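User: I'm preparing a small set of examples for a lab meeting where we compare how different chains pack in three dimensions. I only have the primary sequence for this one, and I'd like the structure in token form so I can line it up with the others. Please keep the answer compact; I'll paste it straight into my notes.
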Amino acid sequence: MRHFRPLLTLFGTLLTAPAFAQTPAQAPASATPPATARITGTVLDSASRQPIAYATVVLLKADAGPADKPLTGVAADEEGRFTISKVAAGTYRVRATYVGFRPLSRTVTVADGATVSVSTFALASAAKELSEAVVTGEKPIVEVKPDRLIYNAEQDASNAGGTAADVLRKAPLLSVDGDGNPKLRGSGNFKVLVNNKPSPTLARNLAEALKGMPADQIKSIEVITTPPARYDAEGTAGIINIILKKGVDRGLNGSVGASTGNRNSSVNSSLNFKKGKVGVSTSLNTGGWYGPQQFTRDRTDYAVGDAGQRQQPTGNLHQLGEGRYGGQWYYGTLGIDYDPAEHHSFSLNGSINGGGGFGQQDIFNQYAAVANPVLQQLYTRATRELFSWTNQELTGTYTRTFATPRREWTVLAQAARNGGTYGYRLNQFNTLTAGDEANAAYRERSAGRTPGAEYTLQTDFTQPIGEKQTLDVGAKGIWRHTASVGDIDGFTPGQDADFVPLPSRRTDFTYDQQVQALYGIYGFSLGTKWNFSLGTRAERTALQADFRTTGTRFTQDYYNVLPNGSVQYKISEPSSLRLAYSKRISRPFIDYLNPYVDSSNALNISYGNPRLNPELTDSYELSYNTLIKTATISISGSVRRTGNAIESVRLPTDRPGVSANTFANVASNAFYQLNFYGSVKPLPKWELSGGPDVQYITRTSPTLGIRRRDGFTGGLNANTSYQLPKDFSLNAFVYYSLSTPNLQGRGGANLYYSIGAKKQLFKQKADLTLNIQNPFNDYWAYRNNLDTPYLTERNEYRNYQRAFRLSFTYRFGQAQQGKQRKSISNDDKKGGGGGGQKGG
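Assistant: Understood. Below is the structure token output for the 840-residue chain.
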């Protein structure tokens, strides 16, 4: 232990537990030669050529039988690399195994003091084993790994021509509500990454941004419920990592495609090339979305007594909204990789993502006051909203490896600029329906913008300590600036000559955030059965906001120490148990903080709360993974507790008939969840994956007078595919969830299903795909309710999901997988999972 004590002292404030010395398993007493040799190698997935982290590698006698015990063994690191040290001269068999993959063995001969590098272990998926043959060119739709679930979107034909929102609907533990907002394990508090790095566009308005990312560019979705300390500590429910298709090994390859349908359309392309030490990857995509929208709302207002108890009704509100929405998006990427020498590599990646859209809706409003006829209201508002966004990102990475296996140093830097515009125009008519603009009783218009920039610098270093210990340390700094500037003008015919500014409703808000972090992770193995990871992340946050409209400012500066750790026990080669703990933080971002008042729905206004505090969550998870013949099974139980949760709350206002929606630290929440997920091949050409989850939720809020609100919820996710003769295939998917207990009511149930058929053409160089979504119902009615002392409300939003999409993709050249490179992941702010406010 003396040889690494100085490193532990340096990072003593980070590590949560002392390092434990260990003695590698010794060779049998009969092994007389000195144990001075080493065996090194790498374990990869044969289909994707990606590393298999934590694969088990054991050393066996050359003539060992099935019942013989290994002489020694190690666990591969996160890059799939392994080193077996203190090996005596002789001939052996080296065997690599991992849950869900077929074991692979190689014979190796070593001499005294030599270091022998064995050929790469390319493990084939066990789910592809058919009689004596193994098909290695295709991955299962869902993979189960110790620390994450992976949905291989490129293997699902029904995604062709869709968007990222369509893909996220099908990933394990995920759902998408009627407004297009994803949820992870029923929670909107998570972080979305793209290739392990953040996208400011996603942070600003996730629901709209997902429509602007083509499904054809998505390779897989990784669901990480207990991220380690190297990730930013944001997202109490976990991380959703969207992995895009990227990279070539040599030559020229690419693809072109187009799709059309009644809900969206797109044109997609990619071009990749590598020659010598330089590789280039590009993509360019554009498309649009469109459809109808409709909602109804019925609300009863009540008087409230001095003790907070509900009294007699004071009024009833009925609203009916109908309209359309649509928009266009574009998405382009450029990546350059340069490997000048064996242990040095550089990469430069840039992207641009933007677009715009509209929402057109007529909202009929009728408010009947019980005791005061003066407050009676009947009018229709015709509103047209416009919004746009643009985001540019540039990321540079330098990676330095060493002759010592598993030792690595990386430096990463990212610069991102993002911005958006928003606005609306409304005409109010004192009639049952909207009319001509010239007959409007009141008119209003609003325009604003949200400029922003983000800069990140990060460095990571991995130091192996012997063959079974690893120390990871790193530092990171993020500097963000964002703002919201908006004006509102009103015009009342007969009172005003023209539009006049409404300064009391203007917003002029700037927000600066700095986050500095240090982390350390100590990983070690005990024998071949136990793997441990102990880590801590220490973060400093500095905030400054300036509200120019009110002349007020505020600053915050706070520190957080966020430990986490995991232990994995391998029951047998295909089965393992994993226990993990993490403390995570959610910092509110501009969608939650922006005080801009959205009055497009005059009787239900919304605004942010600039004085929110971050929320802290303790997460615990116990999971069991195994392989039974061709079936991969994952069962996990988890608990998440948050003491100062940021909740969306409905509050009364001083204006009769008007309620407000905002955010506040007002609740203590606990989520108890049991998840089952499995993948199986009942027949050689038929694959099934999916499973149920059950969740019990408790919420309390003394601030709102809620002693306890609890209840069960659950869901079912199922995906199936079948390979037909002559290059035909079929896919089907279904997701259903029960209603969810919220702090002030219950959320709605959810149903989404789709079927797809694919035909490969031109010697499997092209795909023609037909997808049909929700064919048996025109829309799904998302119903939710609110229940507070001062109001009860029933809402129904109709999501018109019945859709068809016809897609064609043509591939040229040889598509191969490039070198895996690290990337920045700024997953540290709350806002990615919730959609937020328009105009935010």
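A couple of notes for your slides: Helices lie at 5-10, 164-168, 200-204, 206-211, 590-593. The mean pLDDT is 82.

User: Perfect, thanks.
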